[in-house]
Design goal:
With about 150 residues, the protein is α+β, with helices and mostly antiparallel strands. About 20% of the residues lie in helices and about 35% in strands. The protein has 2 helices and 8 strands, in the order E-E-H-E-E-E-E-H-E-E.
Length: about 150
């Protein structure tokens, strides 16, 4: 797998936190999608979808699992009934790899943690790993899903 060191740009996002079992993530994501549709943030190039993965669901209890699902925005996020909040992903140095295939088994994230990091001489920054869901929507099949993975480094 090809890994590059890149600078992730400072990015304003609309965000919702999922805390609980991975099987229930779709409930949280639907709230972000509803907000996205109501605000007409439909261009996937301009309004990019992200996941900030704080935990590995295979190493924590289901109630401890946390992911912030985000959509890049170019303005303020107003108070809303969906629980969407404004946050900023800071600019940072990252190891980058691309995953193609099911988002339920992200091979690039596993590779970065298990194989690349121990051999790289790099140190994690403490910020959660960032998944950029390049293509999203009901017409994206598991085998066609593209996820760019950014591992924040010191």
């Amino acid at each position: 797998m090809q890994v590059r060191i890149v600078t992730f740009p400072k990015t304003q996002v609309a965000s919702i936190t999922h805390l609980g079992p991975p099987e229930a993530e779709h409930v949280t994501v639907r709230k972000l999608i509803a907000w996205k549709l109501e605000n007409r943030f439909l261009d996937p190039v301009k309004y990019r979808s992200y996941g900030l993965h704080y935990t590995d669901p295979s190493t924590v209890t289901p109630k401890e699992h946390r992911v912030d699902f985000c959509l890049s925005v170019d303005g303020d996020v107003a108070e809303n009934p969906h629980g969407i909040e404004q946050k900023t992903i800071p600019q940072m140095r990252c190891a980058y790899a691309r995953d193609i295939g099911s988002r339920l088994n992200n091979k690039a994230g596993a590779y970065l943690y298990e194989r690349w990091l121990p051999r790289s001489g790099e140190t994690l920054s403490g910020y959660p790993i960032i998944f950029h869901y390049v293509n999203v929507g009901p017409n994206v099949t598991d085998e066609d899903a593209i996820t760019d993975v950014y591992m924040p480094l010191k």
